[in-house]
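Retro notes, item 3 of 5
We never archived the inputs for the adenosine-5'-diphosphate complex last cycle. Fixing that now. Sequence and ligand:
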Amino acid sequence: MDELITYGPELAQGFLENIKLALVGLVVSFILGTILVAMRVSPTPVLRAAGTAYVNVVRNTPLTLVLAFSALGLSDQLGLVFSDQPETNSFWLVGLGLGAYTAAFVCEALRAGINTVPMGQAEASRAIGLTFFQTLTMIILPQAFRAVIAPLGSVVIAMIKNTTVATAGGLLTDSAATMKIVFDTTGASIPIFLGVIAAFMVLILPIGYFTGWLSRKLAVVR
Amino acid sequence: MTENGDVTPLVKLEHVDKHFGALHVLRDINLTVSRGEVLVVIGPSGSGKSTLCRAMNRLETIDSGQIIFDGQPLPAEGKALARLRSEVGMVFQSFNLFAHKTIRENVTLGPVKVRKVAKDAADRRAMELLERVGIAAQADKYPAQLSGGQQQRVAIARALAMDPKMILFDEPTSALDPEMVQEVLDVMVGLARDGMTMVVVTHEMGFARKAANRVVFMADGQIVEENTPDEFFTNAQTDRARDFLSKILTH
Ligand SMILES: Nc1ncnc2c1ncn2[C@@H]1O[C@H](COP(=O)(O)OP(=O)(O)O)[C@@H](O)[C@H]1O
Ligand SMILES: [Mg+2]
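Structure as it came back at the time:
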C-alpha cells in the first residue's frame, strides 16, 4: 500500500495524460468516423471504395503498429511536427493515431446505425428536395447516431483502455517514464496494479452507465 | 382546370420503359397530366403503379423514353433534380415522417432548408397548414405519438409546405386502420377542390368518383384503360379491368 501512496501523485499525473490522450482520440475518431461513414454510403463509387479500404486496413492492423507509426513514422519520415517540444509532439501524434484507428470502429458502429433507419426516411427527405448531403446529415445520421449510442460507448471504452498501449509502448512519454520508474523501484507491485485498475474503473464504469441511459433517453420511437 | 390559362400539360410521359433486372415493370407508358387535374391510378398489386408514381419525381430512374415536367425533361441529378423534387410533393403509404423531428419540424424542414424561407415565416405557414389538416394541437409531438391517420395528414401538410405544382400519393390510405381512412380522404378531396394537380394511386372508389377527373387502369406494367371515373367503374371496357373491379367490389 505504501508504494501506491508514495507514487500516487506521479501515477495520477501519468493517468491524466492517458485521459487527455483519450479526449484527443475521442474528438478525432468521431469526426473522422463520421466522414468515413458518409463516404461508405455515398453514391460516388470512388469515395465508397476509399472508405471501405480505410476501414478494412485500419481494423486489421495491430494498434501497436498504428501508434508506433504515428509516433515515429509520421514525424521522422513524413516530417509532421506539431510542436518543438518532443513530448508535446509525440502526444499529438499518438492522439491522432489513436483517433485514426478508433475512427474505423466509430464508422462501423454508425453504419450499423444507418441500417436501422428505414429507407422511407431518406426517400421522404429526397422527395422534399433535400440533397444527398442534407439527407445524410439532417435525417439519416442523427437517427443512426441515436440507435448506436451504447455500441459507441463500447468503442470509447475500448479506446480509453487502448491509451495504455501507448503508455506500454513508451510512446506516451510522461506516463511511460512514470511507469518505468515505478516498476524499476518497486518491482511489479500488486497495490499499484490494483490502484491503476481502480482508476480506470472509476473512469470507465460511468461511461457505460451514461451511454446506456443516454441511448434509452434519445431512442427514436417509430 | 387551367386557372392560369396555361394549357400545356404539367407532366407528359412518352414511351417510358423501366426494368427491375429481368422484370419489365413499365411498358411503353404514355400519359399526360394536365394542370389542376386529379388522376387516379388503379390496378392489381405489382402492376407498376408505385414505380410509375416514383418515376415522376425520379425516385426511380427510367430506362428509356422521357418524362417532361412543366415543359422540361426531368433533370438527372444534382441541384436541378433536388429543385424538381421540391416542386413535386409525395405522400407515401407508410407516411415516412421524420421520426426524430417534431410534427412542426417535419413541416418546416423543407421550406427552411430547401427554399431558404425564414424560420418564423416557415413556422407560421406550418401552423396554418397543420390547422388546415386538423393537427395544429399536436404540433410539438413526435410522429410516433400520433395515429396513422394523423401522421398521414401531417405528411400531406409537409408536402403542401413546399407549395408544390403537383402531389403524388402512393396508396395513402392503404396502411391505415379503416376508421382513419376517411379523415385522410377528406383532406385530399379538399385539395382537389382547391385545384391541386394530383396523381393518386388508390383503390378508394369513393374518392375516385368524388374527386378524380380521370382513372387510369394499369396491369403488368401497361396502361390498359383510361376513362372518367363513372365510365370506368360502371362500364369498364377490358376484361382485365372488369375482372379486377369484380374483385375489389366484392369485399
Ligand atoms: N426496387 C425494386 N427492385 C426490384 N423489383 C422491384 C422493385 N420495386 C418494385 N419491384 C417490382 O416491380 C413490380 C412493380 O412494383 P410496384 O410498382 O411497386 O407495383 P404496385 O405499386 O402496382 O404494386 C413488382 O413486381 C415489384 O415486385
Ligand atoms: Mg405500390
